[in-house]
Amino acid sequence: MKHARLLGAAAAVMALALAGCGTGTAASSASTAGSAPAEKVELTFWGTYGNGGNSAQTTALAPLIDSFEKANPGITINYVDMPYDQLKQTLTTAAAGGELPDLLRSDIGWIAQYGKLGAFAALDQAMPDFTTYADAVYPGTLAANAWDGHYYGLPLDTNTRVLVTSPEALKAAGLSKPPATFAEFTAMAGKLKGTKIKAFADGGLGQWNIMPWIWSGGGALTDDAVTKASGYLDSATSVAAVQMLVDLYKDGQIPNLIIGNQGATGTSDGLPGGNYASILDGPWMVDIWKQQYPKFTPNYSPVPAGEGGSVSVIGGESIVMSTSTTHAEAALKFIRFTQTEEFQLAMAATGQMPVVETVGTKAAEQYPYLAAFTEQLKTAKARLNIPEASKVDTILNNHLTEAFKGSVTVQEALTAAAAEIDPLLAK
């Protein structure tokens, strides 16, 4: 590939220095955004499109970079691809040394952490037309870029989880369509009792796993201002949503995979294998099953709706600009380019869901399997966006595992979890 340089962490940092990433601030350069660069510049762009190797995504990225460079003479994009874990390690090292790339494809879970460190520029301050682009994307994807009153990136690609069901399992339950509500979901489980099929399976109890049920049940993890979990995570509606799952687990309708039993059949094999009737999963499963289980054609539908409607969780990556760049004007031009239909549709062909709502609709027309995910994105929400978000997942897993085992009640588990999360929100 013309632009991708598959470098190790140390080599990537060295390449960054050679590429001319400076120590000026984004704010000082952004004042001239919109005008042509005064001189030729080379922007270093770190990402994980190929996860450190070649892939359909890096192949699709090359002509897009070419297109941008042709439309913007004088700007060259030097894309450096790394594996996910290596990128974060290299980013941390670069942030400590003040030698960051101009641009980065960041996991949405990194936004608050590196925003707090001062590594990512606040785009709502550096980008004069930020609102124009912010208004065009799915609300949940934008929210994932917010921290401490500012937005430290724009959504680049996204995903969400929907209910994926086995047609054979539905038939065994006497159903002609997937359950659309909590009531229908539990009714399906009741009809599967006595069969070898469990109603639902998942592989954990972190935010990614449990929040679609809590949100759909009308509950919440924190207040809207993200200052308190107590009274929200352990509210009656939150407790009721989790209690539904615990009851199904105790009734043998959810396998102990959900509490970390590595010996249990995984969801990607269990659904097509006839072990499970339903799971929550993302659009990447389409290609996985196409290769591993070519005869398996599941149903994709919204998360069952409770008092809060049908609400799922947001995943994906963002495009961010570092505070080390001395070429903010050029960097912002490329950020704008990533939001165009040209860029978003080209990456949609590789499984990267568009973040711009109008483009998402077009992508679903071209790739029908995306329709359920595109619809779910309209209500999907971001996970807790704080620097110590990973600790929240650990807290939820630890306490909810005890509730599923029956050591404590769901109310006790969520109250204890909320009490541990509260101090994290004040940092």
Structural commentary:
It is a single chain. This protein is α/β, with parallel strands linked by helices and 427 residues long. It has 2 domains: 5-158 and 316-377, 3-Layer(aba) Sandwich (D-Maltodextrin-Binding Protein, domain 2); 162-312 and 388-425, 3-Layer(aba) Sandwich (D-Maltodextrin-Binding Protein, domain 2), CATH 3.40.190. The protein has 20 helices and 11 strands. The protein has helices spanning 9-18, 26-30, 56-71, 84-97, 111-116, 123-126, 130-134, 139-143, 167-172, 182-192, 207-216, 236-250, 267-270, 285-292, 328-338, 341-348, 357-366, 371-377, 389-405, 410-425, and strands spanning 5-6, 41-47, 75-81, 103-107, 146-147, 150-151, 154-160, 162-165, 278-281, 299-301, 314-321. The strands form 3 sheets. A 6-stranded mixed beta sheet has the order 1-3-2-4-11-7. A hairpin with a 2-residue loop joins β5 and β6. The longest helix is centred in the C-terminal third of the chain and has 17 residues, at 389-405. It starts with a strand and ends with a helix. Mean pLDDT is 91; it is low at 1-35.
Number of strands: 11
- Helicity range: 40-55%
CATH topology of the largest domain: D-Maltodextrin-Binding Protein, domain 2
CATH architecture of the largest domain: 3-Layer(aba) Sandwich
Largest sheet: 6 strands, mixed
Uncertain regions spanning at least 5 consecutive residues: 1-35
Ends: how far apart? 43 Å
DSSP helix count?
20
What's this, in brief?
By secondary structure, the chain is an alpha/beta fold. The chain is 44% helix and 12% strand. The chain has 2 domains: 5-158 and 316-377, Periplasmic binding protein-like II (D-Maltodextrin-Binding Protein, domain 2, 3-Layer(aba) Sandwich); 162-312 and 388-425, D-Maltodextrin-Binding Protein, domain 2 (3-Layer(aba) Sandwich).
